[in-house]
Amino acid sequence: MAEITGNSSNIDPRSGFCKANSTFYSKRKPIPLPSNESLDVTTFISSRAHHGKIAFIDAATGRRLTFSDVWRAVDAVSTSLFTDFGIRKGHVILLLSPNSIYFPIVCLAIMSLGAIITTTNPLNTAREIAKQISDSKPVLAFTIPELIPKLADSNLPIVLLSSDLVPVGSTSNKLRIVTSIEEMMRKESSQAGSRVRERVFQDDTATLLYSSGTTGASKGVVSSHRNLIAMVQTVSNRFKLDEGNQTFICTVPMFHIYGLVAFATGLIASGSTVVILSKFEMGEMLTAIQKFSATYLPLVPPILVALVNNAEIIRKKYDLRSLHSVLSGGAPLSKEVIEGFSEKYPGVTILQGYGLTESTGIGASTDSAEESRRYGTAGLLSPNMEAKIVDPDSGEALSCNRTGELWLKGPSIMKGYFFNEEATASTLDSDGWLRTGDLCYIDEDGFIFVVDRLKELIKYKGYQVPPAELEALLLTHPEISDAAVIPYPDKDVGQFPMAYVARKSGSTLSESGVMEFIAKQVAPYKRIRRVAFVSSIPKNPSGKILRKDLIKLAVSKI
Fold this sequence. Notes:
Elements: E1 17-18, E2 23-25, H1 41-46, E3 54-58, E4 64-66, H2 67-84, E5 92-96, H3 102-112, E6 116-120, H4 126-136, E7 140-143, E8 157-160, E9 171-172, E10 175-180, H5 181-187, E11 205-211, E12 219-224, H6 225-238, E13 247-250, H7 257-266, E14 273-276, H8 282-292, E15 296-299, H9 301-309, H10 311-317, E16 325-329, H11 335-344, E17 349-354, E18 364-365, H12 369-372, E19 377-381, E20 386-390, E21 397-398, E22 404-409, E23 416-417, H13 421-427, E24 434-442, E25 447-453, E26 458-460, E27 463-465, H14 467-474, E28 480-490, E29 494-503, H15 511-519, E30 530-533, H16 547-556
Helix pairs in contact: 2-3, 2-5, 3-7, 6-7, 9-11
């Protein structure tokens, strides 16, 4: 029987619900967290016993980094940042890169100084990246040569994650290439063991990841070292990684909370090997599983669906016998998908998870095949996590099997939004409860089910697309008088953005014209892929778009 973390005699051991305060408590065994207030997440990870030898493998080149290599590199990079570039506690540093064996090294080095890492999607446009730079105000950037043009107007000194193509020390169009990470790692300063650093506390900020908002304005999520330490403990405990060497395939993006928590910090804490692919490509992923005898495969639902639909071809071409678990996040899996996968890959267990950037990727999970067969569930509450189901209209906290907004509270919940008191106050209450924006219910056995989203975000292949951002761009078109963007269901990608557009009188603007206008301004995952023209956009008396009416209209024509 799983353990209840609450201490009230009013707690139902089956559901975890406490009648006295209308709170659901985790049924998972509580995980102890370090009590030392002066502790950074890098020191915490490096102090854990490592049972493995190889930390990271570059799938494309075969280059391997042992755990000793990793910690030497982290120490060398942090020393260079401190000594050569004056990086201090509280400074923000931007990391713009696809997945790389250098990604976790940079993150760990920055956080060891008490400096703050902010990541961004390499698919984002220069305009989108510039907005994040303006908000977060980094003092230095790490990137690869191919992405340098996206920082052309930033004035930031740049450290290259590769010395190819662009000579270190070169300057053009305001760019300053100051060094490369290879150069940093070669120095291995003699000061490494004796330098004096500023003391870092668990409550200090470690990461500043950007989360899409319904308003269209992306918000910086401030997470502390305590948040990340709690995440590391949860990840390591969930997969029982201390019990033997495991190999993970990393195709999910490291800049995203899913990739960052699982690979850049979480998994190296227990000696697992992470095989890193710079981007997702189905054939390369399957080849890597076979070549490196991978045991765990994290992915998003559309990829899992593709594995089911192409199972016959895949099993003939690739040997996947080493694989024993796939980890799915982003959206609950349907009964058909779970049963189809289990039938075609009988030796592989599906484990699901639910989390947000604001909860450091932690919230709920299914940790066994039996739990995943509770079809449609996001899982049981993670260890040390509490939940409420709150009626969005009345504010009443509800009991089992009643639908309301999911609120979460626990050691991995963010500190707030970066210099955005209004957004923080509307998302975090004074007692530390995070309003997730997801409509859910919790059944009599403590399993969470996501019913809908209060937040109007579109989920494309696991990426979040705020419709308000696309609507604001559409309204800048000289031939568009009004517009609304909705999620359009798609079996391959989950959802994609569809636009309803009201043209100005006399306009002959075409569907392709609308799509091309947006495509030039946003990352590929945000592109509008379907357009319908209407005489006017339906709105309520206060002027809010009636998105649900448009969704019904779109779905009725499928």
